[in-house]
Amino acid sequence: MTIDSRDKLFLRAFRNEATERPPFWLMRQAGRYLPEYLEVRATTSSFLEFCYTPEKATEVTLQPLRRYNFDAAILFCDILVIPDALGQKVQFVKGEGPQLEPIRTVEELSALSVENLHDHMAPVYETVSRLSKEIPETTALIGFAGAPWTVATYMVEGRGGTDYSNIKSWAADRPEEFSKLMDLLVEATSAYLIEQVRHGAEVIQVFDTWAGVLKGDQYDKWVIEPTRRIVDAVKAEFGEVPVIGFPKGSGPLYETYVEKTGVDGVGLDADVDLDWAAEKLQPKCLVQGNLDNQLLVKGGPEMEKRVKTILTKLGKGPFIFNLGHGIVPETPPENVARLAEIIHNWKK
Ligand code: CP3
Description:
By secondary structure, this protein is of the alpha/beta class. It has 16 helices and nine strands. Helix content is 50%, strand content 12%. The strands form two sheets. It has a seven-stranded parallel β-sheet. A two-stranded antiparallel ribbon has the order 2-3. The structure holds coproporphyrinogen III (CP3).
């Protein structure tokens, strides 16, 4: 007998139903901290090609589920497949991260197009379809994309780790021009996420890793507005599908993000104060987070104490346990096993 997907613990949490313990998963739960990931990864030199190979992407998505009883699996892919699909040159250089041929003018922008989006993403949709058949029946399947602001930072800066001066000045000084890039990303990202749901994704997460770069009206315009439009587009097609936003580094702006974007859940980074989140955010939406990923590297009593504090302080309201940012490659897999054990034994 197959269980009704609505009964999955992960999905029940969004309906604010009483659950015996909070559901949990970890950002980057598939990846380089797992030897079995490295083994499959070594069979394809290009990271993007790896993401576009359904057999391999499916396999590495499932790997962490064989070790740990996570309540959700996240599609294995990357946020930078969107600029790739739009026609920008994107490469992952070993040891250096992503490198893109920067887009900084309307002329460069006019070379990009959504025309081939779905053809380009066909292998990703195929991975989602395979996963929806292959994951354990109690596990939820999360689809994802980068938020327009974060994807645009890579598109304009050309790589990570910059001071964001190119994109910040384009956005502030020539907003009509910059809007064209953001509109394109809103359109492509909405269509891409809707198609992921159509192929079996049950929850969507929108990663806005660099939201914290913006303040004031710039935050409203380039973080909140585009995210709200994507949430609206997904909800117009699939009103029941929960959307989690992860506006990392937003500080006090987390509150307006939750109020204005329409997300069902919000991912908290490790800097967010737990009492503040319980008081200001949880009455408005589900919160997810927020263990420091370095504490997961350390493990031991310090990690255990913090995990219990998070469970106690956030466990009273709608809550999904996660990290404050993705697992780093140095993480000992046994620390993840210990974390899973603590959460599974937790009684409210
Ligand atoms: O398990 C999962 O969480 C799903 C897979 C996933 C990846 N990237 C795989 C990946 C997800 C959800 C992402 C999102 C992503 N990608 C974000 C947003 C979340 C965050 O972590 O802030 C961002 C900013 C990117 C862009 C990106 N991709 C960078 C900067 C890098 C290089 C840095 C690094 O960690 O090496 C990547 C590459 C990448 N994406 C890897 C993985 C497993 C490592 C590449 C490899 O295995 O060779």
